[in-house]
Sequence to fold (549 residues):
Amino acid sequence: MTSYNARKLKSQAAALLALGCVLVALIPLASILYEVVSRGLPAVDWAFLTERTKSSGQPGSGIGNAILGTVLLVGWGSLIGLPMGILTGIYISEYGNNWFGRTVRFFNDILGNFPSIVIGLLAYSLVVTVVGFSMISGAVALGIIMVPLVASTTEEALRMVPNSLREASLALGVPRWKTVLKIMLSNARSGLVTGALLAVARIAGETAPLILTAFGNSFWETGLFEPVSALPLVIFRNAMSPYADLQQQAWGAAFVLIMMVLALNIVVRLLTRLRFKSMSKKKVVSKIWLQRLRPST
Amino acid sequence: MAAEIETQHLNAYFGDVHAVKGVDLRISSNRITAIIGPSGCGKSTLIRCMNRMHEVVRGARVDGKVLVGGEDIYGPGTDPVTIRRKVGMVFQKPNPFPTMSIYDNVAAGLRLNGVRDWKRLDDTVERSLRLAALWDEVKENLAASGVSISGGQQQRLCIARALAVEPEILLLDEPCSALDPIATAKIEDLLFDLKSRYTIVIVTHNMQQAARIADNTAFMYMGKLIESGDTKTIFENPEKELTEKYITGRFG
Fold:
């Protein structure tokens, strides 16, 4: 039997150890943020954000085309990856209780752990060999990376919905597919949004697959079948270059990329909160409710 | 007249577990029938067979017949979705849809089946909430979340939700087990009022409850139907010794 004081001391020591580990883990995060902000922020001005990338020594070089490229690549990639990922997640969770579903889940997990460069190679052999380095090939690579991430977060979010709600809906004579669409998905929506957001943030920073697909471009290019610039590509190429001004631009681009991902997080969180609120109000605007709003005569 | 239910040699299984064993039971229309018995005796499974909710669980299967209004609901080509609209169900734990308002919860069954007509939805919501004796408590507050009200109100909301799709039969699976005595009394009064319109089957652990509200009572033990009949007879003069032992609390 240990005394109360000895136990208390042990407990405090354990708590202290945990706190210490947290602090150590925070060091890299804080130092990355510090470096990116202190080196990247000075590079950012209006021209930097709006001009296209130029070679070393040329005045007025910027990353405007890379920002546009990243936005477009992430947009097209999400257009491919989100529906496929969400539908896969729905299938695994709601209809996948059989050998096929288990197989899909297994390969989905494997795909999620694939190195992204391998997926870049896949997109290279599937798309680039046909249409050349292009936005569409980059979007395909990013979309494929999204699928397993979105599928597993969707599955997880659906699993968190209490079974009693599914039963309540089925017992009302609501068909299964409608139960999934209207009851299960609506109760899982915050998990779905978070999962989709994480996947978008993840692909926004992907570099390796883009080297093999989107390739990069110094000009304003928005065509689906043309090579396109992207922030990670600018960071990668400029950081490798021997010129100080290009390295400076790499830091600036890194800063912008981090801010974009952060802003995306905040905006989506705010939007979902607002939308849920207004939805719950709008839904009851029916006659009974209007009667309550109107003073009775 | 609401429909009556008859099970003919009904067996229900979960995988290898034989949960309901050869039950033959007649449930009269416009009556309250209580199904009593110890935990795990198969009474919940039995009523879940009556609206084809049993098969929702993985590995569950049924053989035998369940006739609802003379029609075998396990017959070939029968759609479980139409059966469930005819045979409503209320569960043990109140389970309103948390993302929906009170109004939307009651309207859910109609809306999800494609009804868009506001007038009809409004009428149905009001009528169902009145039937469930909840209207006066929530009428000023229909936009509030379905889970913002008390447990007893939530359970009446679930009853209103089930009634909104205009079933003929109402199955209740221990509807009061999570409620306090006052909320329980309200639900019992409500069931008493509802039996003129519906056939009601209630599973309960609470024998006083069965004695208070049920016209007929069925006693189950280890998956078998031991005895069924008039509540008064079952409680005062049971045929089987097992029934008497259970009712008097001398068990095991």
In short: Residues 110 and 165 of chain B are 6 Å apart (CA to CA). Residues 118-131 of chain B form the longest helix (14 residues). Chain B has a mean pLDDT of 92.
